[in-house]
């Protein structure tokens, strides 16, 4: 027992990279990571030992762990052409706010994911990776990982974690279960990554760099909200409110203290919608990522090197 704890205390610090969900706003974090790679001379794959993500962040985690992508390659994955192809739909007009089916049919997204992952399984990841989704039939969170569910394909895991209600259909994975976006459970999976890394690496020397996707701070009209039903709350982004709850972050700060660093800010002029790929919005997302680097760049380098 003594030898085990001596080994436990001497283990090198392990670094976890955690990605929030947030649709196209996830590009801001990639812009930040591109600057980190330039500053360190290392790819994100080499800088971190484990990857965890929710929704769009889950895709990023899988692309790094399975394809060994660097931040520039991730940025190419999130090109406007790729995003457009992932939002293709074979259904009739989806411009109505009250559409009765998901906004996109998910076929284009699946084809894009197959292009990048082919038939790779999560077990083929070069480093541990996890994605968070929600099993709707069993009504419980689902953590798909290279450790516990190695036979699940990367395409299935990516589809499951990013099946955002209203936007994409519920997604079936190889074990026959049906999943929706993990943001319903926790849009910031940093705490999950910390716990899993502690168990997997058998050490308490864990650091988590948590990459957000911006927080909508636009004021909600309190008195007016008293009269809102389902339509009123949907018009006022009730989904965004659920995704941007800050409790996971506050618990992470209390639990991990200086072993946790969060990269995030108010969205300011960035559109809160997950699928706004207008040139002006993509430019604003890019600028948000650069602003993050200006604010968090030096603390992040210190965090990684200490």
UniProtKB/TrEMBL annotation:
CDD domains: Pat17_PNPLA8_PNPLA9_like. Keywords: Hydrolase, Lipid degradation, Lipid metabolism. GO terms for molecular function: hydrolase activity. It comes from the Bacteria. Pfam families: Patatin. The keyword Membrane does not apply. This is Phospholipase.
């Amino acid at each position: 027992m003594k030898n085990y704890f001596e080994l436990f205390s001497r283990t090198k610090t392990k670094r976890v990279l955690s990605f929030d969900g947030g649709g196209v706003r996830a590009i801001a974090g990639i812009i930040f990571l591109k600057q980190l790679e330039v500053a360190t001379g290392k790819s994100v794959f080499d800088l971190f030992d484990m990857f965890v993500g929710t929704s769009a962040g889950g895709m990023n985690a899988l692309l790094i762990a399975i394809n060994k992508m660097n931040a520039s390659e991730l940025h190419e994955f999130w090109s406007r052409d790729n995003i457009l192809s992932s939002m293709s739909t074979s259904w009739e007009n989806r411009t109505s706010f009250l559409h009765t089916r998901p906004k996109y049919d998910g076929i284009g997204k699946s084809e894009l994911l197959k292009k990048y992952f082919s038939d790779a399984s999560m077990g083929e990841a070069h480093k541990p990776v996890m994605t968070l989704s929600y099993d709707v039939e069993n009504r419980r969170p689902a953590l798909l990982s290279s450790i516990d569910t190695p036979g699940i394909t990367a395409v299935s895991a990516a589809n499951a974690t990013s099946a955002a209600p209203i936007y994409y259909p519920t997604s079936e994975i190889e074990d026959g279960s049906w999943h929706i976006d993990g943001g319903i459970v926790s849009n910031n999976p940093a705490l999950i990554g910390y716990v899993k890394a502690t168990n997997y690496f058998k050490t308490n020397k864990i650091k988590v760099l948590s990459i957000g996707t911006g927080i909508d701070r636009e004021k909600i009209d309190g008195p007016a909200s008293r009269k809102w039903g389902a339509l009123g709350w949907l018009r006022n982004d009730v989904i965004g409110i659920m995704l941007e709850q800050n409790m996971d972050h506050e618990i992470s700060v209390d639990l991990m203290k200086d072993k946790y660093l969060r990269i995030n800010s108010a969205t300011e002029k960035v559109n809160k919608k997950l699928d706004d790929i207008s040139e002006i919005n993509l430019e604003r997302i890019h600028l948000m990522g650069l602003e993050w680097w200006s604010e968090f760049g030096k603390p992040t380098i210190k965090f990684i090197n200490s």
